[in-house]
């Protein structure tokens, strides 16, 4: 650098570069905040969905217990019900 004008020119370029980078940073920060908001929403939806799965599991368990009490053979690994060969003698529905 030989003159004040050259030095001022370099400084102006450096400030322009800094302004561009600061603007880019602001956009990225805004995008990050939006992602965090979306993540909180998705976490909430996930917890609700997980609760519905647990409710379904409890319903299935209750239904299997009821079917077992009615004399059906319930395979714990499937949804296949096998009717009883004979009604249980102490079953009031027989």
Q: Helix and strand succession?
A: HEE
What's the mean pLDDT score? 86
Task: Report the count of strand segments.
Answer: 2
Multimerization status: single chain
Which shape, going by the Cα principal axes?
rod-shaped
Coiled coil: 18-52
Keywords: Coiled coil
Q: Would you mind describing this structure in some detail?
A:
With 94 residues, the protein is mostly helical. The chain has one domain (4-82). The protein contains one helix and two strands, in the order H-E-E. The chain has one helix at residues 4-69; strands at residues 73-74, 81-82. A two-stranded antiparallel sheet has the order 1-2. The longest helix has 66 residues, at 4-69. The chain is rod-shaped, with a radius of gyration of 34 Å.
Summarize the topology.
Blueprint (H helix, E strand, L loop, with lengths): L3 H66 L3 E2 L6 E2 L12
Antiparallel strand pairs: 1-2
Q: Keyphrases for this structure?
A:
two-stranded antiparallel sheet, mainly alpha, 1 helix, 94 residues, rod-shaped
Would you summarize the structure shown here?
The protein is mainly alpha-helical and 94 residues long. It contains 1 helix and 2 strands, in the order αββ.
């Amino acid at each position: 650098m030989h003159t004040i004008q050259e030095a001022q020119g370099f400084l102006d370029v450096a400030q322009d570069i800094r302004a561009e980078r600061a603007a880019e940073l602001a956009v990225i920060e805004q995008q990050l905040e939006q992602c965090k908001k979306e993540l909180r929403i998705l976490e909430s939806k996930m917890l609700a969905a997980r609760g519905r799965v647990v409710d379904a599991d409890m319903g299935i368990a209750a239904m299997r217990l009821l079917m077992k009490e009615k004399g059906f053979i319930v395979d714990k690994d499937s949804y296949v019900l096998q009717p009883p060969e004979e009604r249980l003698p102490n079953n009031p529905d027989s």
